Amino acid sequence: MKNDKVTVVTRGVKNNALTCVVMGVSGSGKTTLAKLLAKQLHLPMFDADDFHSEKNKLHMAQGRPLSDEMRLPWVKRLVELITDEMATGRGCVLAYSGLRKEHRQLIRLGSPNVVFIFLNGSQELIAKRLAGRDNHFMPASLLQSQFNDLDIPVNEHDVIVLDVEDSLENLLTKALAALKQAGFY
User: Fold this and answer.
1) How many structural domains are present in the chain?
2) 53, 132, 141, 166: most buried by Cβ count inside 10 Å?
3) What is the rounded distance in angstroms from the CA atom of residue 91 to the CA atom of residue 138?
4) Does some domain include residue 6?
5) Is 5 part of a structural domain of the chain?
6) pLDDT tens digits for 65-124?
């Protein structure tokens, strides 16, 4: 699904208290883009993987996908993080898979100013990327389960869809332009 159209609804006060969630399946480039966005926006960056329980990390390392029930406490920890960051008045950038629509909705409840950047790409391309990645608790064998669990954001007006076939520089430029268009910086 390639979509360069950007529709963002700014729900609330326009200020630096932005939650920018870079989402997509494992290997889509979430963390890399989130780090660059955080630097450009002068916001703290968090990787949702750091908030998984050890039990969940072990479960995935054994090649078993998480259930929605296993993900829920993790998502709740992320909502607490976002709420805390919003309370500081500065917001944050979060690299987070965002596979399930109902979990994205929980994130929205934690932040009045949230924008999701969905890194969309083919399973074949992302599988190639994962094949070259070392030292991550989630094996490439779980990629299929991530695509199976992914609720593609449709009619979610706070989601910017970017194609991972673009260069990192183009992804960053498009993300910043969309955020600027929405009045977030």
Assistant:
1) 1
2) 166
3) 28
4) no
5) no
6) 889 899 999 999 999 999 899 888 888 999 999 999 999 999 998 887 899 999 999 999
Reading the block at residue 10, the tokens are: 């700014």
Token pair 């673009």 is found at 166
pLDDT > 90? residue 160:
yes
Percentage of residues in the chain having pLDDT higher than 70: 86
In a domain, 64, yes or no: yes
Q: What is the pTM of this model?
A: 0.86
Q: What does the pLDDT look like over 15-33, one tens digit per residue?
A: 457 899 999 998 899 999 9
Neighbours of 109 (CB within 10 A): 11
Give helix 101-110 / helix 68-87 axis angle, nearest 10°.
20
**What 3-state DSSP class applies to 59?**
helix
**124: in domain:** yes
The three-state secondary structure class of 151 is coil
Tokens of 127: 């599988």
For tokens 């976002």, name the residue: 82
Q: Return the C-alpha torsion angle 58, 59, 61, 67, nearest 10.
A: -140
Residue-range definition of the domain harbouring residue 56: 18-181
Give the domain CATH number at 126. 3.40.50.300
